[in-house]
Amino acid sequence: MYKLYYMPMCAASRAAKMILHEKGIKFHSINEPIWKRRIDFLKINPEGELPVVIDNEQNKIIGYFSLAYFLEESNVKNILIGNNPLNRLEVRRICKWLDNKFSKEVYQNIVEERVFKNLKGLGNPSSEFLKAGRTNLKNHENYFEWLLNERTFLAGEFFSIADIIYATYLSTLDYLGEVKWDRVSFTKKWYAKIKSRPSFRDILEEKIFTIPATKHYKNLDF
């Protein structure tokens, strides 16, 4: 059985979970608080980042993006990276946007501040960072809303890891009540489709004991 090192509310870890479920791969999840810098985990991934997947041959796969490509190149069922070079190019572009720009401008300013800062014992969230994150969130939402007005899925007319990673970023923000769904109708319709996929069920069950989820978090008809 595969092993997945992850953390609740870590968007990339959630993406790895979804990919494994979409591929029909059974796995065991191991909660890894990376700020503790465990020696045993650093031996697996010296970078100290999540997610990390170890397959049945003990191969170490670092990151959700590498996981998706590794499984596709190993001919595991269900294409998630696009079935031609142009599709894959757009998938990579959107994933790069989310993992760099969105993560830095939104996720780190909101989720890191509201969830992980407390868990790390670094004090209360910064109101300045939260304000910046919420302003940036609206700008990013506007861009993806524009895309989803023109497309069924983020990269085109096919479901891909671009949809997975945006949905998992949004899921962490939605857990905290940070997404105002009434202003992004196309995104809401798209998210409802992703949220209804069997691969998303694990994510909806994740909890942070110090922070309850918003009331509509698990509701598929929100």
Average pLDDT score = 95
Work out the count of structural domains: 2
Taking strands numbered 1, 2, ... along the chain, how are they ordered across the largest sheet? 2-1-3-4
What share of residues is helical?
A: 40-55%
How would the global form be characterised? globular
Per the CATH scheme, the topology name of the largest domain is Glutathione S-transferase Yfyf (Class Pi), Chain A, domain 2
At CATH level 2, the architecture of the largest domain is Up-down Bundle
Name of the CATH class of the largest domain: Mainly Alpha
Q: H/E element string? A: EHEHEEHHHHHH
Number of beta strands: 4
Class of secondary structure makeup? alpha+beta
Q: What can be said about the biggest beta sheet?
A: 4 strands, mixed
Short description:
This protein has helices at 11-22, 39-44, 64-73, 85-119, 127-150, 161-175, 185-195, 201-205; strands at residues 2-6, 27-31, 52-54, 60-62.
Descriptive keywords:
222 residues; alpha+beta; Glutaredoxin; Glutathione S-transferase Yfyf (Class Pi), Chain A, domain 2; 2 domains
Task: Give an overview of the whole structure.
By secondary structure, this protein is of the alpha+beta class. It folds into two domains: 2-73, Glutaredoxin, CATH 3.40.30.10; 85-205, Up-down Bundle (Glutathione S-transferase Yfyf (Class Pi), Chain A, domain 2), CATH 1.20.1050. Helix content is 53%, strand content 7%. The chain has helices spanning 11-22, 39-44, 64-73, 85-119, 127-150, 161-175, 185-195, 201-205, and strands at residues 2-6, 27-31, 52-54, 60-62. Helix 1 (11-22) packs parallel to helix 3, helix 1 crosses helix 6 and helix 4 (85-119) runs parallel beside helix 6. The longest helix is centred in the middle third of the chain and has 35 residues, at 85-119. The mean pLDDT is 95.
